[in-house]
Design goal:
With 81 residues, the protein is mainly α. It has helices spanning 3-36, 46-78. It is 83% helix and 0% strand.
Amino acid sequence: MGHGARLLLGLLAPVLGAVLGGGLGILGGFAWTGLAGTSSFEGYSGHPIAVWMLVGALIGLIVAPVVLFRWIRRRDRRGGP
């Protein structure tokens, strides 16, 4: 894999990880709100969803580049195409 491709993947991985993590966080927040029976009084049920979304985005922002670079390193050691 060329240096340009690595650079592009290195820039895209955190963005895509944050978006996917945020999406999963929203789903987790909806599940939490439903299971916990959170009140919707004055939009209170939106607060846990926002927290779950932000935590999911932060985790995705960190995990995606780590997974990508481990995958690239393993691929380069094998001599992949």
